[in-house]
Predict the 3D structure of the following.
Amino acid sequence: MSAATEVTESQEHVPTGMHPKKLMMWLFLASDCMFFGTLISTHLIYRKIYPDVGPDPRSIFDIELTTGSSFILLMSSLFMALAVSAIHKGELKSFRRNTVLVMIFGLLFLSGQVYEFYDFAVNKDFKLTTGTFGSSFYLMTGTHGVHVALGILWLGSLFAYSYTKHFKAETHAMDVEVAGLYWHFVDIVWIVIFTAVYLLEYVSF
């Protein structure tokens, strides 16, 4: 019996009908979804209650820059999907190539966020201590940035591990798929943040 057949059979006979690793990731993402939901709703509620506290979003937000960073992060999801597809097909070179592209695009997004934070704090005097707007904004976007950084480290470890003799496509495809779920979740969260915070704030003022 081949390794691929063993993996397939083990996945088919789990009580929940879902691989334990994938089930645990979905549970984690559900809890993380509530966490981000709390951060985003708290920010929006504070802005509704205290609309005049803090600077005018139009004077600080660089929509063009953030839109570009958002597009880069969304494109990384495409490469993540390709990496997952490649590992399921046993195409290690394609998996490695697309994984590297995901990490590069993720680093580009983080670079844009770091530059944005620097510009806010130094040139526009918008800091963590700038009222409820500043504290809720930096906590929310900063937490998301940490999630992106952790995702890059996770993918980097899988990429490095793929060069060892212990890594086999048929036995580690689920690990890559679980990492892909996490990465897609991080991208979706950013879409919500970008829409609810950047675009709505910019349009409403």
Observations:
- Residues 169-204 form the longest helix (36 residues).
- The radius of gyration is 20 Å.
- The CA atoms of residues 38 and 73 lie 22 Å apart.
- The chain has one domain: 16-47+67-204.
